[in-house]
């Protein structure tokens, strides 16, 4: 593990900037840039091109700016086509972060102009950047923003006990109770225990589930940076989470618990174990991921002592007159969520992947 260089914005170069599309044989070159770029995230990795195209069947347009023969900035994009919500060019669907990474203002402008030209050529409703942090000069009045998500990130302390004591008292008591009850965790090397727990968990929330093959593909594409952590009570698996690793960060990304997990504290213990294990391996930042404002997940992460950091997602209308309200908090979707919860689980697992690929 290592830290990205925190170098200042590079000085403008007189060399011409060329914007190109990532080719299959250039993945290692792209990732070498992402690995050292301070603004880049796990979701800027080239492997997401494979996930978009093979997993979701969405056309990808991974753009990079080349200057002086080197990559100076990247912008991963995918064309999301939805019968429900129209068409959009997004950086990046099914990911919590995106947007331009790297480069000086000239490089960022070149990538932004190329993305807008592509959006117009494709005839999409809007262009969307899922910024985690956005350079102020990047956005002008033509970009729209709406406060919908926050992310939760916090440094990990070098000692496990220190990290436990950093959890607020009430939440820490839940973790200690789970420890005393004999819960334990293990790393799984396939998705056989994870997927049934995750699928049932999202079904109870009224959310369509990803296909089993999505998680298998993630495990293959990101074999160097992906684990599955499962929590057991005795021999019974009660909670499971798929983790991503990027530089010195750990990201618990897809997680769920059984109906027993709430009473045993398995969900809470699962996230503690993700912290503890990451600390033991030398990781220094825990990314709890994004949550929608006003939701239980948002409150849950605050209860762990994480401060919400608003995500400045930005949208530029292309053909659409207004942004679609793709948000489960929208009252229009309340009926759908209630109906989805009533579907038999096998039917929900069969239909869910066909719906979720349109949501992004």
From TrEMBL:
Name listed for the protein in its UniProt record: FemAB family XrtA/PEP-CTERM system-associated protein
Origin superkingdom: Bacteria
Entries under NCBIfam families matching the protein: pepcterm_femAB (TIGR03019)
Residue span(s) of domain BioF2-like acetyltransferase: 171-302
Family matches, as SUPFAM superfamilies: Acyl-CoA N-acyltransferases (Nat) (SSF55729)
Pfam families registered for this protein in UniProt: Acetyltransf_6 (PF13480)
PANTHER family in alphabetical order: LIPID II:GLYCINE GLYCYLTRANSFERASE
């Amino acid at each position: 593990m290592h830290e990205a260089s925190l170098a200042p914005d590079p000085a403008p170069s007189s060399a011409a900037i060329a914007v190109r599309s990532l080719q299959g044989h250039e993945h290692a070159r792209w990732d070498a840039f992402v690995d050292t770029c301070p603004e880049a995230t796990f979701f800027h990795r080239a492997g997401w091109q494979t996930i978009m195209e093979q997993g979701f069947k969405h056309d990808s347009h991974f753009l990079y700016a080349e200057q002086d023969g080197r990559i100076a900035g990247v912008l991963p994009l995918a064309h999301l086509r939805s019968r429900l919500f129209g068409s959009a060019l997004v950086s990046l669907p099914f990911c919590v972060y995106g947007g331009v990474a790297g480069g000086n203002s000239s490089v960022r402008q070149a990538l932004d102009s190329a993305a807008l030209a592509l959006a117009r050529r494709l005839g999409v409703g809007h262009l969307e950047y899922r910024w985690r942090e956005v350079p102020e000069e990047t956005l002008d009045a033509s970009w729209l923003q709406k406060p919908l998500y926050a992310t939760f990130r916090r440094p990990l302390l070098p000692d496990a006990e220190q990290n436990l004591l950093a959890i607020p008292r009430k939440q820490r008591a839940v973790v200690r109770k789970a420890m005393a009850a004999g819960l334990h965790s293990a790393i799984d090397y396939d998705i056989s225990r994870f997927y049934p727990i995750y699928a049932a968990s999202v079904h109870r929330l009224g959310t369509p589930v990803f296909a089993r093959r999505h998680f298998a593909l993630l495990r293959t594409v990101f074999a160097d940076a992906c684990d599955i952590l499962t929590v057991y009570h005795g021999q019974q698996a009660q909670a499971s989470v798929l983790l991503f690793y990027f530089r010195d960060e750990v990201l618990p990304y897809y997680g769920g618990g059984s109906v027993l997990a709430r009473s045993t504290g398995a969900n809470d213990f699962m996230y503690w174990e993700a912290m503890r294990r990451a600390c033991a391996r030398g990781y220094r930042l825990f990314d709890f991921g994004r949550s929608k404002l006003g939701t239980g997940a948002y409150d849950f992460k605050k209860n762990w002592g994480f401060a919400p950091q608003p995500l400045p997602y930005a949208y530029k209308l292309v053909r659409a007159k207004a942004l679609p309200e793709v948000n489960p908090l929208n009252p229009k979707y309340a009926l759908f969520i209630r109906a989805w919860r009533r579907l038999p689980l096998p039917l929900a697992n069969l239909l869910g992947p066909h719906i979720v690929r349109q949501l992004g």
